[in-house]
Amino acid sequence: MKRIALLGMPNTGKSTLFNRMTGGAARVGNWPGITVELLAGKILLGGDMVEIVDLPGIYDLHGFSDDEQVVRHFLHDNVPDIALIVLNATQIERQLSMLLQLKQLNLNMVVLLNMADEARKYGITIDTARMSEALGIPIFLLSAKYGTGYGEAMQAVTRALRYTTPGLAENLRDQLKQDGQIEVEMARVLQHSVQVPARLPDNLTNQLDHLMLHPWLGLPIFFGIMYLLFQAIFFFGQPLQTGVNGLFGWLREAAIAPLLASLPAVLQGLLLDGIYNGVATVAAFVPLIVLFFLFMAIVEDTGYLSRAAFLMDALMARMGLDGRSFVMLLMGFGCNVPALMGTRVMRSRPLRLLSMLVIPFSLCSARLQVFVFFTAALFSPKSAALVLFSLYLFSFASAILTALLFKRYFPNTEPFILELPPYRFPTLRQMVLRGWHEIYHFVHRATKFIVAGVVLVWLLTHLPPSAAPASAGTWAGVIGAWLHPLFAPIGITPELTIALIFGFVAKEIVIGSLAVIYGLGGQALGGALAQQLDWVQAYSFMLFTLIYTPCLSTIATLRSESKNTGFMLFAIAWSLVLAWLVSLAFYQSARTLGY
Ligand SMILES: Nc1nc2c(ncn2[C@@H]2O[C@H](COP(=O)(O)OP(=O)(O)OP(=O)(O)O)[C@@H](O)[C@H]2O)c(=O)[nH]1
Ligand SMILES: [Mg+2]
Description:
The N and C termini lie far apart (68 Å). It contains 25 helices and eight strands. The protein has two domains: 2-195, P-loop containing nucleotide triphosphate hydrolases (Rossmann fold, 3-Layer(aba) Sandwich), CATH 3.40.50; 221-413 and 429-592, no CATH class. Strand 2 and strand 3 form a beta hairpin. It has helices at 14-22, 66-77, 92-103, 116-121, 128-135, 150-160, 179-193, 204-212, 218-260, 265-283, 286-302, 304-318, 323-332, 336-342, 349-358, 365-378, 381-406, 428-462, 475-487, 494-503, 508-518, 522-532, 535-547, 552-562, 565-592, and strands spanning 2-8, 39-45, 48-54, 82-88, 109-114, 125-126, 139-141, 194-195. It has 595 residues and is α/β, with parallel strands linked by helices. The strands form two sheets. It has a six-stranded mixed sheet, with helices on both faces. The chain has a two-stranded antiparallel sheet with strand order 6-8. The site of magnesium ion has 4 residues, from helix 1. Magnesium ion binds at residues 14-15, 34-35.
């Protein structure tokens, strides 16, 4: 099968083009370094099945950050039949050098000047025919986001597929031409084909940045925006959650329970109180999570993340980190795994490791489910918002404390040069793709972890058969009693201990396993928890859940990204110790104060 690779600098729209070509849902964002791994999709092009590969953006073919190495290895091992070079038409002077570098590899190339819409707005004119002639490569203007020029570009790609596959690329390590020569050639190409107005028109981006990056107002505006986003998510999300909860309850009574009535009681219990209750309680969070990611996608796609990096850079530097680490912490609000992988854009290994040590403290959406459930059950609606907010503060505080404690072991020497892309508005198409992707992701995790998790919890709380379900005599009860000396000082009951053990695998299981342990789902479970626990215990439990290792996927990513098992073990141990100490401090002082 023929293969087409998308190559170019970061943030030029490669993933947007990939999604348009394949109908896929590659993550798109207005931040350099969103894609960090290869992503492939197959399409029919000119009657042939071809594979399209989306690659991370690179600044330099010879660069040495981890994502640049991913690209180099890819090109080395699989010479693509076509290298589809995606350049940002508004920065053509800067981006042409990479094209000339790539040209020396003797690849079969088609060049796409993307963001034609923005170039036109800025008054930049590009004579693609002339440029094409000067370089001897087919060149097309297009807008991957809005689709203009797409058809023509694809025709050219189809034509280029007919050329014979080039031989092996030259050795990637050899710099064939001196940089000086490249500059001369660049000037020659640009001279006749590109016209950039002497001064770019004063546009929306400049005006907005005047406000957003204001020395005094910038940070308050940032936190204001974040606060409003979260308010909006809950305002729209919670009614949806209640609705889904009701739907699952109704479905259980009306259809599932009668259907299973003829089965033996034990099997009914496993299916209904185990799997159905567990999964349904978790599934009720799907609308909230999808909304959450949609809002995150908007923040990512507008380019505001780069502004956040700019605003926080100086503060982060005091902790041995930089603006990019802050952006990854924000991305970690969604899921820690892509945030950890996003550190690949950092070239300094100590900086990268320190960032990876703090990112798992980001309150990810899976933990948010646990907190939403507990705060709804144990706190009044008014204080619930405050409680959630305080947990976000604890999340940041844990990250800051960790960075301050360990920064001297991870000295950062890499200067951080920030690029501020223009503000861009997401399209409906991008949003729908993203939302769909998150639902898919949830279903995937559900089948992988949640079902297995709730079945295991059910077995632990129902075996041996001689013991009453969920009593002290069951295996779960034995484990709970065994760990009691460790968890009693922080106010965590044996039931909650079991949930925490499973939470080590994935936080999505925590609520599901409580549903199984109590044999209740949805609001009934909330009621049972409220009867058994007081708010101090619940808050201590939430603190522990927040700080200890988020999930197995995060642990695996820590290992694979650091390529260092010792580092991974250290990250786990530290988070467990910190979680226990923080919960202890909170629980004991609250009790001392008489709560
Ligand atoms: N105005 C405009 N914006 C675009 C166009 N194509 C992509 N974008 C936006 O540019 C930003 C970057 O797009 P991505 O597809 O994530 O870029 P990428 O090249 O994959 O970036 P990395 O994965 O970081 O290398 C996003 O905000 C897109 O919505 C376009 O044709 N016009
Ligand atoms: Mg990308």
